[in-house]
Amino acid sequence: xxxxIVGAGGIGCYYGAxxxxxxxxxxxxxxxxxxxxxxxHGLKVVHEDLHFNRAVDAQAMTPLMQQHACAEYDLIMxxxxxxxxxxxxxxxxxxxxxxxxPVLSLQNGVDNEPMIAAALGNAxxxxxLAVRIGGxxxxxxxxxxxxxxxxxxxxxxxxxxxxxALEALAQTLNAAHIPARITPDIxxxxxxxxxxxxxxxxxxxxxxxxxxxTGLDTRSLTADPVLGRTVYAMMQxxxxxxxxxxxxxxxxxxxxxxALISQFDAIKxxxxxxxxxxxxxxxxxxSGAVIDRCQRQGCHATQTELIRCLLQLExxxxxxxxxxx
Length: 325
Description:
Blueprint: E1 2-6, H1 10-21, E2 25-29, H2 32-41, E3 43-47, E4 50-54, E5 57-59, H3 61-67, E6 75-78, H4 85-91, H5 93-96, E7 103-105, H6 112-120, E8 125-131, E9 134-139, E10 142-146, E11 150-155, H7 164-175, E12 180-182, H8 186-200, H9 218-223, H10 225-242, H11 251-263, H12 270-276, H13 283-296, H14 302-315
Parallel strand pairs: 1-2, 1-6, 2-5, 3-10, 6-7, 7-8, 11-12
Antiparallel strand pairs: 3-4, 8-11, 9-10
Helix pairs in contact: 8-10, 8-11, 10-11, 10-13, 13-14
């Protein structure tokens, strides 16, 4: 198969390396120093079960659209930050609309698939999530990843019956040592992942209401008796928010996801890495989605609102001045 991976960060590069190792064709869309390094010196991906270091096809989006038709690709894997989805759909609109190539979103949040479906239609929209993987650019052209790196995917918004093309894709991914499974209800799976993302990502970014705690990984965060309770409360708020999308998350779902993140190997969350590198945080796409949907239902996501507020204050610090007579 021929894959186009848009957003060649830690997640996209890891999956692309796996596909290349399995003999597929992969083009990576990147930018800046990371793109330049890949074009000149190739891509290096280090994982406990993979050591990849070779030349790759890496391009910027605009030149790629000028030189290649969308129809040349069997699948577009979208691994951009969620805040970039709308801009990419606008930039690539004409190019995308000349083909029927499906787009598989492997992004944080629950709002990417609706945007893709609005632009391209439900038939071309595959919802997806990368599960139990930590992957980051540690230097231009150099990726470190860890974890089983599973993919859960499904047709948007639901899949009533089996689909031969999707089943073939799952077989292709599994054969490339990317554990993949198909779900008939991808919205439910996306909201289940948001339980973790909203509960852990903002807090492990290093801000806590009661202390100057910074840089905690997921395991350290959930093991702390106070912060662990805060994480669980934010997960409960996420479950309430999901009802606005007609998704029902039970207390058992919350318990399962809390146990999962508590037992998973300690990783740096994407927000923590973004903060360390001075990049924009996915606050609106993760915490904002929970806050907005709770408000639609006439309630408040109190813990999530507080953590987002503190993070925003940290990003845009206010200068303190003493009170003078």
